[in-house]
Amino acid sequence: MTGIRTAVLSPREGPVIAATAARLISAGWRTVPGDGPVDAVIFDPGLLDGSVQGNPAEQLLGLTEGVLPRLRHRKDGGAAIVVIGSRDQLGWGDRPALAAAAGALVSVTRSLALDLAPRGVTVNLVAGAHLGDEPRGLLPDAVSPTDIAEAVAFFADPRSRYITGQLMFCSGGSHLLSSMSA
Question: Is the pLDDT of residue 140 over 70?
Answer without folding.
Answer: no
